[in-house]
User: Fold these one by one.
Assistant:
Number 1:
Amino acid sequence: MCFAMTVTARMSDKDTLTGMDVRLSDPDSRFVNARDVVIETGIDPDTLSRCLRRDFDLRSLEERLNASDKLQDANVTISSKGRLKVDVTPMVPVARVFEPGKPSYYINATGKRISAELRYHVDVPVLVGTFDSVYPARRLLPLLDYIATHPKAGAMVATVTQERDGNIILVPNIVGHVVNFGDTSRVSEKFALLRAFYRSVAPSKGWHTYDTIAVKWRGQVVATRRNKALPPLPLPTVEEQTGVLDINDNETVAKASDEENA
């Protein structure tokens, strides 16, 4: 036993890491590649041969990778051959957020941010507005999740905006109007109401008749006309009220009275 323990201790002192293997769940990710992951680890692969296996802190490395804005999840292990295995899930954006006076960023399904860099662009819905602790960007996630998982809804929406009072406004791909969505409750019902409006009302009333379509109330659609000024009532003018015949008649009456007086 003493001999075995001594040999084991000596082997442990010499048991160093032999290299690093990085595996992405989505190799075609446009946000991160294997080289980016190595950079995020903060480890120089050439120095791993000097790192003792027993002293390597796997938990700290996982925490560092999970804190990265490019990764959604990370799992780090060491193989029996001393290889450092890094398995990561790249960031999957569901929207791009634009706030006045701030750099834009992407957001994933859990609300995690990733800075928008010029080297990549992903075609996702755009969020525009002012977001704070009362109305944060993550409150729109149920709506974004529905849009992402329902292609018909995704095809209808070009931009999602949030007003200061919290109202969510959809800018559809059908130009000429906006949709007041209210909040993220009853998302499926609201899209059903919007589709019904597009099928039954818009074709007959005209696609440019309304500038705002509100589906925020349960079971109803409220549309606001684009031309809010009512046309003037067709009241007759003075000339129309008098008319040529009336003038002639008055002149005739006046002449007849003069003749009678003469």
Number 2:
Amino acid sequence: MSSAKVITPQGYAKFKQYLEKVCGIMLSDNKQYLVASRLGKLLEREKIDKLEDLVSLLERRGGALKEEVINAMTTNETLWFRDSHPFNILKEKILPELSGRSLRIWSAASSTGQEPYSISMVIDEYKSSRPGKLRSGEKIIATDICTNILEHAKQAEYDSLAIVRGLSDDLQRRYFEKIDSGSWKIKSSIRNRVDFRYLNLIDSYSSLGKFDVIFCRNVLIYFSAELKLDILTRMHKSLNPGGYLFLGGSEALSGLSSLFEIVQCHPGIVYRAK
């Protein structure tokens, strides 16, 4: 059956509305091909002829089917030390500033784990170069809405193709070990700092506690302006006074100058909670 018959304009509009309601993701008006490619097998398996029928089924059934749809529609493009500047700022500015107390970092939308594990490696390098610092301990909370991706991240195993994306040979030798499957597993000293949890960013963050640093990078681009404002306002409440927020290279704060100030780091910027 052709995608044109399955994805009518009315059905696509209903699916867009449903997806934004349950997880905040906004699809543009020309992403019918993306829906067709990511949900094609599911529609065939469920013997669904029209996308609007899938929406009706999701509203009645929810549960595992809803989880499967969100997993399919979530983008999980990532790599090690993505954009590099935030990790350099963390190591050279923020960790020295916060080294006298216990440290809590939140990696929001952590995907397959490269970001929180990269953060853990930065912490390890900092502690190795400055013995006695960060003696009060560090914890990284990594959250994502995609359940199957979270399970993959918890395993901390990456194939050779994933390993080379942003990771130097030196870091691979120091922090990974080859396993029987031919993949590479992150060493326990790096894994043990990271706690992976399910979280939908449109839901409450209160169960996570307070943080000194939040990485929320390359995810706000999928949300409406109103939802971005809501998420960032609630993230401000999740930061300790003077805590830091990292956004993606193409993302910026707008209308929140009363909550955050820009810290220029040359290169790169970070936002500090007022």
Number 3:
Amino acid sequence: MSDYAISQVYPSDKRSLAQIDALLQKEGITRDGNLDYICAMRDDDDEIIATGSCFGCTLRCFAVSSEHQGEGLLNEIISHLMEVQQARGNLHLFLYTKVKSAKFFGDLGFHEIARVDGTLVFMENRKSGFPNYLKNLEKTKKQGVSAALVMNANPFTLGHQYLVETAAAQCDTLHLFVLSEDASLVPFAVRKKLVQAGVAHIPNVVLHDSGPYIISSATFPSYFLKDEAAVIDGHARLDLAVFTKIAQALNVTHRFVGEEPTSQVTGLYNKIMAEELPKAGIQCHIIPRKEAGSKAISASTVRVALQNGDWETLKTLVPRTTFDYFTSPEAAPVLARIRKAGNVVHY
């Protein structure tokens, strides 16, 4: 153990954050926009010599000053962050690291889930975490042609319903994964409930929580990738590396995705998926979006209608089950959150 103290750095501490940014920059890292705890280790002159951060149940944004590398400071930062997470009740932890650092974190008790060669490795602190997730999925495996669909459904629209109906009609079993990260305006519990209600009439759908293994773009770590195109590429390839293992557990040979004509991000993501999935023996089907009034139905448009209290427009965009929820007293806290949000159109 070194003699250096580790302390929390608050968003108001601009001087410390500037030092942290400079330290991260030397490692080719930009401070992540999604952080809920930042710590720093200081030397006797009150200069920051090491840092690390948390977001949710993930550890991220590590750096040690070049003058102090080899002193075991990063181990101390990791130990500190794990104590912080334990105090929060987060015992199952995840991290993303550059490929060259994977062995270091492996020696600290982290286990690889998936990797994108040359870019990043996704790890967790439970050896049996991902294997157990796959084993539980295997219990839902069925005979015949199996397909998969992943959606956030923020919230569930007629477009989502059409996508599920179209996919389900082309297979014996459709494994439908709902992103369970709470990074959306509509909380996961509500999103899942609305998906469940909206697909109840389709008998061959098996609903799954994504768990922590299918990563949303909102929480994907972009801090060590150089530009937006690299971030999208890295996220897509990591998603596919994880998904390929999920597909093997379920004998999935088809993946369905919705076309996203207004989103450059999703367009590039879908393009990578269409190129890469067949290499793993999985056919990728990009389904054109359902339209209302000659415009593609999107969850962003639905959130705008909810924000404005435009119930007439909402009726044309969502299934009855979604409409009934949002016009019920139960939806009041979610509506308040959407109305406070400012910009609800996400690309």
Number 4:
Amino acid sequence: MHKILILATGGTIASDVSENGLTPELSVSDIVAGSLHSLSDCQIDCRDILALDSSNIQPEEWQVIAREVAASWEQYDGIVITHGTDTMGYTASALSYMLRNIPVPVVLTGSQLPFVHPLTDATDNIRCAVAMAMTGKPGVFLAFDRKVLLGCRGVKVRTSGFDAFESINYPPVARVTGSGLELREELLPPLRGKFRLEDALNTHVFLLKLTPGIDPAIFDLLLQRQYKGILIEAFGAGGLHYVHRDLYGKLEALRRADIPVVVASQCLYEKSDLSKYEVGKLALEKGVISAMDMTSEAAFTKLMWVLGRTEGVENVRKWFRTDLTGEITLEERGVRD
């Protein structure tokens, strides 16, 4: 008999129609009763810990969720977290770092249609998440549309389609097929020690999407506002411009202030490679840190998490060259589809 805990945080899956639009109204017990009534080999415990649209789930809520998991995991074979889809990728990435070496599966899921809708995808998604939780395989995962992704690789790519999430630069770790849940264990990151709740976050991190013609003075403003870290979504493999508007002088000022600048690509797939073009090499000379093939969600939450532990460009650089939970593909651990 498997023992699974389901923690509810709100989201579309728990929503019903109100005069102001869809708002989280249902309890997790209502959802579970309608979704998992056929499971005879699983004991399900339910707990509502939040009731929020995921647009309102922020770092403070990540800490609430992480602490709830940390206080509960020893009593369960796995934990499922129901969550709105819009920020689920951020929460899944953040929990991947905060729940260091979690020994049981922690699986986030949700739906594109409310549970009360006659055509909802909630039932399939919850069943998939519970199936993954029942495997006992440690880690943080995201279950959606009959696929299970590493939590730090899942990105929402569709606003309404049932296949809302994709696994970026890493294969799904499991799929539901005619044979049931087919798990690829070779894709699961190994545990590297005992479990530790590491939920300190520095929320003074800024994500900037680079656009042609952006005013370099934006970096002066970020310095004045005392941001402790900056993630830039740059062009292509990691290019920043210097013709007409020179961004590199501002990068030099940030380095002098010991503010880490991480550079990711605006492209969803494949890695940033700042060594490829002059515009990237110049950025490396100014001390920026490459996010390589990390998603923006994983890089942004990792920067928050790292700055909750340490400060300074070189200290942050060391952490961004370390694969903690499968969020980055290092050369010695390449993974292919």
